[in-house]
Design brief:
- With 100 residues, the protein is mostly helical.
- It has one domain: Helix Hairpins (Orthogonal Bundle).
- Helices cover 82% and strands 0% of the residues.
- The chain is built from four helices and no strands.
């Protein structure tokens, strides 16, 4: 039996890695992957506490987070493809030029 603390430490490390990826990277695709990593860390935490409390609500909530992550990836990738076709780059600085 693996203790609860191990799962929470792994989830915290995944979340911190995701935050570092969002803050450090300039590539939009890498930023989207980092956001997915943070959502997976949240899912791991939800499932861990659901198992700890013998409750299914955490598992159901994790499925909703997975659905939101899939929608975020689809919309984000569509935006990146649109910008890439126009600017031939996937940099965050190119997204700022879309304001005008």
């Amino acid at each position: 039996m693996i203790p609860l603390n191990y799962f929470l430490i792994v989830a915290a490390l995944l979340f911190l890695l995701g935050i570092a990826g969002v803050l450090v990277r300039k590539n939009v695709l890498m930023m989207l992957m980092s956001i997915e990593l943070m959502l997976n860390a949240a899912n791991l935490t939800l499932v861990t506490f659901a198992k700890w409390h013998h409750d299914v609500k955490g598992h159901a909530m994790a499925f909703f987070v997975i659905a939101v992550a899939a929608a975020e990836a689809a919309v984000g990738l569509a935006i990146v493809v649109g910008v890439f076709r126009r600017k031939v780059s996937a940099s965050v600085d190119d997204l700022r030029s879309l304001r005008n």
